[in-house]
């Protein structure tokens, strides 16, 4: 099968399009013919080697974390899917590889594709949808009447998180560039801060939650927005000790992550708020709940550009510009 392969970690390097064997099917697996694959900054960061210490991928391997496609074959213990089903997923860590014609996915990571979405639209959802769900519904348990600041509202996670937060009944503020103000307002943001003209930490206060996907400068400034008891959750780091424990990292790496996050955790404690890092996990059950919201019209996908499969490297380069509104997708069929 055709696939885009990472031969070695290197910043801004091109993936190699080549031939790879069709994946073997375990008893709990579903073999999926991939029709579309969503791209993420996570793909770029893994390619660049930023996650080498905590994600044990050994080149060469196939990159890619989002898929939509059709079930071809199922393992002997699979009960929920059958050949011909249209599905989508974010495969679990250690078994990624959606930039290929086929992939074997554990049944627990898979969900039926929303009926009202195209394959390309569906492929844009899993990673960002699950990230937003696991932050807002699981980690902070966002509820009606609370206030949340979602940074980078026009990005992949931001466009989904704004819609989910509004559905949960929260008042939503977001940061965005001048050209994206109308987009985030139309998605449901109540307060929009143009980061090119305003300092968000000077105009926002009394918030219950901040979802950060940007750098350390924005992370620290976000503390000023929170009220005592508030929660700062970052999906862009630095990883914290709890994440190290969840990943089962060795003592040296646990110490390194503790030191990396010490400064922000100390500053958060001084302001009587909490800091935590979230690295999303594959979850087909949660994805099925997201499907229900999409089919009900509560959440809609935001797709910036769709590239043909053979232009995957060009699509990754476009993501790196930081100009994408929502998600970038490549199509195979």
Automatic annotation (TrEMBL):
Which superkingdom heads the taxonomic lineage of this protein's source? Bacteria
**GO MF term list:** oxidoreductase activity; zinc ion binding
Q: Does the keyword Oxidoreductase apply?
A: yes
Q: Name one Pfam family in it.
A: ADH_N
Q: Which SMART domains match?
A: PKS_ER (SM00829)
Locate the Enoyl reductase (ER) domain: which residues? 12-330
Q: Does the keyword Metal-binding apply?
A: no
- Which SUPFAM superfamilies did the record assign? GroES-like (SSF50129), NAD(P)-binding Rossmann-fold domains (SSF51735)
Q: Which InterPro entries match?
A: ADH-like_N (IPR013154), ER (IPR020843), GroES-like_sf (IPR011032), NAD(P)-bd_dom_sf (IPR036291), Quin_OxRdtase/zeta-crystal_CS (IPR002364), YIM1/Zinc_Alcohol_DH_Fams (IPR050700)
Query: Coiled-coil regions in this chain?
Result: none
Write out the entry's keywords from A to Z. Answer: Oxidoreductase, Plasmid
Instruction: Quote the protein name from its UniProt record.
Output: NADPH:quinone oxidoreductase
| Organism from which the protein derives | Sphingomonas panacis
Cite the source lineage. Answer: Bacteria, Pseudomonadati, Pseudomonadota, Alphaproteobacteria, Sphingomonadales
